[in-house]
Amino acid sequence: MPEGHLPDCHSPPDLAPFPFAAAPYLPHTARMEARPLPTMCVYATDGGAACQVTLHHWRDRKTGPAFPVAVLRCATHGRAFTVYPLGHFPYGRSSLAPVAPDGEVLWTHDDGTGPRLAWEHTVFAPSFALVAAAAAPPPDSPGPPQPVDPWWMTEECEGTQAARVLGLDGEVAVRTAEAIAEQLQIPRLVLLDAEHQYRAARGPVARAQIVVGVLARLPADRCVLDRLLGAGALAGAWRSPERWDLGPLGPRRKLFPGRGARAG
């Protein structure tokens, strides 16, 4: 399956059947570049040999980030892997969290109510759009028929993906659901109730309202990306993502183990 293509809604639950790395991307000369570059490959285990990672090439993306992303190669393990901008992930059309490529949290203002997280830039955008459309007053007159926007055709797949990341699709064990709630910092009973409502909901609007309600319970702070990365790993949306940042002693790696995590 080519990179940048989201699997069908009825595909197996693993959207990314391999671990992936993400790092801040910052402007540098004529392009955005990952800083820092990972010093360990995503196929390494804690007891493995030291990785020899080098930049292999820059790869264009048709969806997701609007700039080429770095592909690294590890001579030790003989494998190549992509370094995604913070917030992005394999096969994703949009960012997972309301963050810029460098990890800065994105905010927006809504009718003078104060800043809120800019979910309209993420995979959760269709859910917010459906809720807003359902709440809008009907037009005074029907007017001419409006053309179908192809963007709406992706809502069901995007909604399925959003529910999976939040653990709402009922595909996780009880202990895993508890871990997801802890990772998101949402009370377990609140998430359990949302899961039951989601599974019983009929129609995309009803499901979107539940997704939006869960996101409203997330703490609105700079850790929103880490919470969603970890929740998605636990729920099986992707395998063992790792985040790289520049620490006081150099590149620093944070691993989010979950279902399908590699040994080590």
Which properties best describe this structure?
264 residues; 10 strands; 6 helices; six-stranded mixed sheet; globular; disordered C terminus; alpha+beta; two-stranded antiparallel ribbon
Task: Provide a short characterization of the protein structure.
The protein has 264 residues and is an alpha+beta fold. The protein is 27% helix and 22% strand.
What does this structure look like?
Strand 2 and strand 3 form a beta hairpin. Helix content is 27%, strand content 22%. It has 264 residues and is an alpha+beta fold. Helix 2 runs parallel beside helix 5 (204-216), helix 3 packs antiparallel against helix 6 and helix 4 packs antiparallel against helix 5. Strands 4-5-6-1-9-10 form a 6-stranded mixed β-sheet. It has a two-stranded antiparallel ribbon with strand order 2-3. It contains 6 helices and 10 strands.
Tally of contiguous helical segments: 6
User: Element order, helices and strands?
Assistant: EEEEEEEEHHHHHHEE
Radius of gyration: 19 Å
Number of strands: 10
Question: What structural class do the secondary elements suggest?
Answer: alpha+beta
Residues in helices, as a percent range: 25-40%
User: How many domains, as an integer?
Assistant: 1
Largest sheet: 6 strands, mixed
Give the neighbour order of strands across the main sheet. 4-5-6-1-9-10
Low-confidence parts, pLDDT < 50 over ≥5 residues?
Answer: 1-14, 146-153, 260-264
What characteristic shape results from the CA principal axes?
A: globular
The fraction of residues assigned to DSSP E strands is 15-25%
Mean pLDDT: 83
Tell me the span between the first and last alpha carbons.
28 Å
